[in-house]
Amino acid sequence: MVPSTLTMIEIPITNPKQKRKFAGLDTAAKVALIFLFLVAVILIYSNFDLSMFREFIALHQDLTILISSLAMFLASVTFIPTIPLTLLLAVLLGPITALIITALGNTLSALVHFLIGRQIGDVMNFEEKRAELPFKLGNLPIDSPIFLLLGRIVPGGTKWLSFVCGAYSIPIFVYIWTTLL
Questions:
Q1: Cα distance between residue 126 and residue 166, in whole Å
Q2: What is the DSSP letter of 8?
Q3: Quick one: how far is CA 13 from the chain centroid?
Q4: What does pTM read for this prediction?
Q5: How far apart are CA 94 and CA 99, in angstroms?
Q6: 91: pLDDT confidence band, cut at 50, 70 and 90?
Q7: 113 near 164, Cβ under 8 Å?
Q8: Contact, 111 vs 179, CB < 8 A?
Q9: Neighbours of 70 (CB within 10 A)
Q10: Residues 149, 181: contact at Cβ < 8 Å?
């Protein structure tokens, strides 16, 4: 038989002195991780040979483009800025190749954000709730190409715009060509 109401199980709070005892371990773990990160950066920096790195890129051009595209896509899907990676690619592979890789990575990640936004909009019945949004946000011309292009100018707004466009279910063709620009 399934109960009609859920009951909360109360867990007794442990002694506050025990919490403070583990707080020191938490701080020590953070300090240790920062120290290990700094040691790794120093070791990599001291042993890094740029000429060997450039030689590897020259020998494995296809692999470099594939790895760069994957790195650009992953950085774009997360909220990590891709400008440093774009500059590095421009120096190592040339500006045209870096432009193509950046455009592909950012467009594919925007498409992933769009599809996630569409799923969230479907799950939450966004079309029904759209009229009830505060400040008349439901009346924004999200499907307008001009609005989409201007929304891409806002720093950090491109990722959020992709989610919103998916939730608003704008035509995917309009979304993709404005994303490519």
A1: 10
A2: P
A3: 38
A4: 0.63
A5: 9
A6: confident
A7: no
A8: yes
A9: 12
A10: yes
Structure tokens, 41: 């950066």
Residue 174 in tokens: 């309009």
Q: Which residues, at least 6 apart from 132, have a Cβ–Cβ distance to it below 8 Å?
A: 138
What is the distance between the alpha carbons of residues 169 and 163, in angstroms, rounded to a whole number? 10
Question: Rounded CA gap, 68 and 66, in Å?
Answer: 5
**Tokens at residue 55, please?**
């030689």
Backbone angles phi, psi at 144, to 5 degrees: -80, 130
Both tokens of residue 175?
């979304």
In 3D space, the residue among 181, 10, 42, 53 whose CA is nearest the CA of residue 106 turns out to be 181
- Alpha carbon separation from 73 to 66, 67, 124, 131, 181 (Å, rounded): 11, 10, 27, 34, 17
**Separation between Cα atoms, residue 175 and residue 178, nearest integer Å:** 5
Query: Which H helix or E strand runs over 35?
Result: helix 16-47
Tokens representing residue 42 in the block: 């120093």
Q: Which residues make Cβ contacts (< 8 Å) with residue 140, sequence separation at least 6?
A: 147
Assess contact for 77 and 104: CB atoms under 8 A: no
Structure confidence by residue, pLDDT tens digits, 5-51: 555 555 555 555 555 555 556 677 788 888 888 888 788 777 777 78
What token pair was written down for 38?
Answer: 């700094």
- Residue written as tokens 């002694």? 15
Q: How many CB atoms neighbour CB 85 within 10 A?
A: 20
Q: Which residue type is seen at 93?
A: L
